[in-house]
Amino acid sequence: MGFTPKSTIYQLKFGGDLDGLEVTCRSASVVAYEDMAELADWQFASPPNAADRKRIADTYEAFAAVLIEWNLEVPAGVPVPTTLPGIKTQEPGLVHAIITAWMEAVAEALGGKPADQLVADMEASLPMEPVAV
């Protein structure tokens, strides 16, 4: 019988200008986490070029895959869907703040290590010699 780990769930709460916003996200693969972390370090052209726009679109798509629910509404009180189209209706700064909070929650749960260090640690822990099973 195989083992399927449970997905870690993160309850994000915000203060300041975003006080009252509540977001629930699941964990993601290391690749998705690295992709979103890369966006934080990406140096965008002004105006953004095709590579920049592709990077942003990929990040929003990866985030849509981990977003479970939020209490975000449009001014008329209508809930914003937790889908990629719903995410795309929001201001980039808001979405970036939510992604950043999610990345910080994941990093904290992992001992504060950046994604590339987590990959290196996992690779270092792999057996280097064949193991008889």
Widest β-sheet, arrangement of strands? 1-2-3
Category from helices, strands and their pairing: mainly alpha
Q: How many individual domains?
A: 1
Shape: globular
SSE arrangement, N to C: EEHHEHHH
Strand composition percent: 5-15%
Question: What value does the average pLDDT take?
Answer: 84
Helix content: 40-55%
- Distance linking N and C termini: 15 Å
Main sheet characteristics = 3 strands, antiparallel
Distinct helical segment count: 5
Radius of gyration: 17 Å
Low-confidence spans = none
Care to count the β-strands? 3
Explain this structure to me?
The relative contact order is 0.16. This protein has one domain (9-118). The protein is built from 5 helices and 3 strands; from the N terminus they run E-E-H-H-E-H-H-H. The longest helix has 18 residues, at 92-109. It has helices at residues 30-41, 50-66, 84-88, 92-109, 115-125, and strands at residues 9-13, 22-26, 67-70. The chain starts with 8 loop residues before the first strand and ends in an 8-residue tail after the last helix. With 133 residues, the chain is mainly α.
State the gist of this model.
The chain has one domain. It has 5 helices and 3 strands; from the N terminus they run E-E-H-H-E-H-H-H. The protein has helices at 30-41, 50-66, 84-88, 92-109, 115-125, and strands at residues 9-13, 22-26, 67-70.
